[in-house]
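Handout, section 4.2: multi-component inputs.
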Amino acid sequence: MNSVRKLLTYTKPYKLFVILAPLLMALEVTMDLAQPLIMQKMIDHGIANDDMAYVIQMGTLMIVSAIFGLLGGAGCTVYSTRAAVNFATDIRRDVFKKVEHFSSKNRDSIGSGKLITIVLSDLTLVQTALMMTLRVLVRGPLLFIGSIILVYFQARELFPILLVLIPILLFFIIFLSRKAGTWFKRVQEGMDRLNTKLQENIAGIRVVKAFVRKDYEIGLFKKVNDSLTKTTMTADQIITILMPILMFVINIGIVIALLLGAIRVDEGTLQVGVILAFINYLNIILMALMTSSMVLMQIIRAFPSAERIQQVLETENEIERYVVSEQVSSIKGEVEFKDVSFSYSKNGEHVLKNISFTAAKGATIGIIGPTGSGKSTLVKLLPRMYDVDHGDILVDGVSMRNIKLETLRSSIGYVMQKPMLFSGRIKTNLRFGKATATDEELEAASRNACATEFIEKFADKFDRQLTQGATNLSGGQKQRLSLARAFVRKPAILILDDATSAVDASSEATILQALESDFHETTTFVVASKISSIINADKIVVMDDGALVGMGTHHELLESCPLYQEIYTTQAQIGGVAVE
Ligand SMILES: Nc1ncnc2c1ncn2[C@@H]1O[C@H](COP(=O)(O)OP(=O)(O)OP(=O)(O)O)[C@@H](O)[C@H]1O
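Output:
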């Protein structure tokens, strides 16, 4: 309920539409309610007394009221649509903004499948619920209450029938709505699972094919899909069963009215027009209850969706909760890890344990260690993808949590283990590094990343369009473009996380050379699996199972660190590094 109230604040800019829609609906309802009343007068006074002038007068009144009703209904549709669509657009914009600000931990905890369901499905449900509410929820109760009042005044003899019927009708509506609510929550959760599976398979289609797991994945998808179908069917059946129940109860009411009415008419205490008006009002009540309960279902369905949207909007970005206390406008690049420990989940096992080392401005720090030892995690902490749990990381002597996030991140060039490029031109992708970069700067960065050689071969060179996920590039080409994107920034701190793994040995040597000559002012962290990539680093940090087990230059480590010696010997044996 709280979530719904908070989400409704998004209707504020569209207050006028929100007010006009129900007002226009009220006009339509008033006209609808007037129709049986006019008709009753036409029959009992006009037709019964053979008064044609009165019949024509009443007929004209019916047409005029129908026209006003039509105008009211059309106006309500226009304004309710405007209010609901704009309301949803604004929420979608804010959810996207929020997701863009998410820390990696936030994103890990919600999951991309759920985020997509929220933006596409949950939001549509909430939008439809608002639109229906503005259109029908006003109409339903107005018709319902109006009909009851009119029956009381126009057909009081038959009013007791209503007193019995209404509680029965309300009982079924409340009981079945509650049941449907629980099931619709399950439908949205099923949708999350379906989206996650779909996303995974679209992204990993090549792996599925290469490992001949097509049938296995189809089987898994079928399970998720079937489960969603079952849940949706149960939820829908609960809704659809409501309508026949309501109709059944109302029809019984009509039969009773006809029986009782016939007796009274026979006795001469009731006019036929009254019975007709009563049956008309009963039908209006049925329609009102049916449409109201449809909207009620829609609202009930939208409740869990509103909660899920609100959950995203209210997620506290743990990275941004710190107060920026230091006036740091630019970063030089001196970095110090001070007793840093980190785990991906609350109370989870530490994947980094008490790490301490310093990196002087312009130094190159090599990071090596077995797989899963925490190398990537260590460098992910630098742009604050995640925040440390214990200890601190100082940049230029200031705790990075006290430096404005934008200042920190815009000083870092990050080449991730898995290159990620966007659909669009090569140029546009490179300018991700520096929006104002000139063509010359792009060319220089590409040269340093050994990317020029393949870009030049494209007919449209830097204007070459990349497909989604850059599937029209090779692994090595993607990696070189990622490197160029980071180089173009000329950052104070450069992170290369296994960034040359798909690059041939001679190109890697050229890239490392370029780093030495063009980036000697830049503090560079090089995560590597090959010693040859970091052999000339000023300092090499050796990681094992989240702990720092050795630190020094290549020569120092060969003397002092058994794990480094082991890596060196293994790589020397397979020819990965020259034996000294
Ligand atoms: N997003 C994540 N959520 C939970 N655990 C994670 C996450 N990323 C990594 N880990 C875990 O943290 C540990 C360190 O992983 P990390 O990627 O830092 O290792 P690495 O040394 O870079 O490995 P590699 O050389 O294979 O890339 C591993 O045990 C891994 O399972």
